[in-house]
Amino acid sequence: MSALLEVRDLKVHFPVGGGLFGKPAGVVHAVDGVSLTLARNEILAVVGESGCGKSTLARAVLGLTAPTAGDVLLDGESVLGLSDVALRRYRRAVQMVFQDPFESLNPRKTVFATLAQPLRIHGIVPMADLRTEAARLLEAVGLAPGAPYLDRYPHQFSGGQRQRICIARSIAVRPRVIVADEAVSALDISIRAQILALMKTLQGEMGLSYVFITHDLGVVRSLCDRVCVMYLGQIVEEGPTERIFAQPRHPYTAALVEACPLPDPRRARAKAAPPLSGDIPSPLKPPPGCRFHTRCPVARPVCATEPPPERRFAGGQVARCHFAEEAATWPFGRLGAAAA
Amino acid sequence: MSMVDLPLAPRPVSALRIFARNRSAALAGLVLAALLLVALAAPLLAPYAPGAIGVGPAMVGPDAAHLFGTDELGRDVLSRVLYGLRISLLVGFGAAGIATALGIVMGGIAGFSGGLVDDLLMRVTEVFQVIPRFFLAVVLVAFFGASIWNIIGAIAILSWPDIARLVRAEFLTLRTRQFVDAARVAGAPAGVLIFGEILPNALAPVVVNGTLMVGQAMLLEAGLSYLGLGDPSQVSLGLILQEAQQIMRRAWWTTAFPGIAIFLAVLSLNVVGDGLNDVLNPRSRER
Fold it and tell me: Which one of A104, A139, A161 makes the best mutation probe of the B interface by having the most chain B beta carbons within 10 Å?
């Protein structure tokens, strides 16, 4: 298998509490043993609710947060513990688009200064061509003609325009992978579709691969080839998008699919009790056994004691649930099957 | 893509406009500018040398020959105030400038690095902050000698911890902002992150504080001079006041004019500082 980017058993733990000399009061298991692979030209979704560790995973992949254990590999080579120079080379290959376009552009820098920074640092174009290249980047993300925008400041743009600028910055170094952390969540629905279309176009033009971190299953379904579902720092299910939606094999995935709004009003589902209630448990003290058992509608005694093994299904679908084989009998999560 | 809307960006209101909108700040700015101009042009404006003795009869009040009167040695008070203002402003801006530069570097490193470096640097600033400032200034000047440069240095050393703590606090909140991570992902090294990304966003309160610090430094120097710890070879406003204290009741003009000069300078600096606060707040620009 030709994995472009690979994450192996990654763990990111944060000690909390404790002062200069005090002992930490606890450890947050933000990411707790995540493995995933990204193939060339693939769009991989990582989904899960707030606090499941998606963003920490993204930051660890980019080297913004040091992992506690595990490895991140690009083309089969580890990228952890790299020297500054090597880390810079890695970041030329792997870029990131951040969640909030109002936060991820320096308010004191012009668009040109923002775009020129990666170009200059990585020596992408000769100094004399910086402006031309920056304008070309803006045009590539749909801000055409680009030149008049270069000397403006971020506050002079709308959210969608800003996110286009952020995307322009991320493609400036001609990366191979872009990690998009909730890249469209902060945008209006109509703008969201435009940005997604843009990202899809860029994927084709530049041969990009995406890790698409989101909580929006609609985005996943329309854009992504494969899905990883995260819960409390672990991946509970992964597989090709159509299979995951057609037959979720983990009750958490099933609940997410069930909660996904239906685009067709005539097929509105019977209003049953929502399959999930309560909040995600504290990552300070993850529950023993299956982490989901405290909220799982089909949990049995074994779930509270035994961590579930990986169950493999046809088409590369993998679920971490003791009862994944019984998925078809669950009273929820069948919506995808009907719609597919 | 034609569906991308391209609204004309609102033209940012010029800094000068915002500043002028605040009447008192504008007035203070004019006063400060006038004082600076007068101080710079002292050699042209002053009728006599500041130290020249007996240029007129001793202790006469303001009249046509000596607008601010003369002191007990027959020196022209106007000339002395003009030159004194020059030295006082030099001390004020010099000390505040050095303190601000030092504070930015120390606070920036502490706030950006965090952890042990931060702890160490902050303990150092606390050492400076718990010692009574004026007392330490007296000790430093008494120890190193009362040259004008030593006084500037002493005041700067006393003042930088304030700026350092301010810069650190700004850096602590700014360093976790997404645009800093974005620059990091773009490959920017620590120096670029500190000075290119974070500092420009942290500068507004620093400039305001630095302006206020100029006034404080001038007062501190005046206080030192008044106690006789100033540089006796340089006429500063504090020194004039110190020399006039014995004749204050018989010749009010010898203390009133230098006192008014200090008062105007410090007050206008403070009001200008507050005005800058409005100008440098990026939100006030978008209106």
Answer: A104
Mean pLDDT of chain A: 86
Question: Which of chain B's residues have a Cβ under 8 Å away from the Cβ of A20?
Answer: 119
In this prediction, residue A263 carries a pLDDT of 62
Domains and CATH numbers, chain A: 3-110+173-339 (3.40.50.300)
Q: How far apart are CA B243 and CA B235, in angstroms?
A: 10
Rounded to whole angstroms, how far apart are CA atoms A78 and A87?
11
Chain segment B129-164, per-residue pLDDT in tens: 888 888 888 998 888 888 999 999 999 998 999 999
B201: Cβ–Cβ under 8 A, 6 or more apart, which residues?
Answer: A106, A107, A108, B170, B174
Interface of B with A in 193-252 (CB under 8 A): 197, 200-201
Tell me which fold the domain B25-47+72-285 belongs to. MetI-like fold (1.10.3720)
User: Structure pTM?
Assistant: 0.80
Name which of B7, B183, B286 is nearest A117 (Cβ-Cβ): B183
* Angstrom distance (rounded) from CA B150 to CA A99: 52
d(CA A88, CA B190): 12
Q: Are A230 and A47 in contact (CB under 8 A)?
A: yes
Question: Residue B231: which region, alpha, beta or left (left: phi > 0; alpha: psi -120 to 50)?
Answer: beta
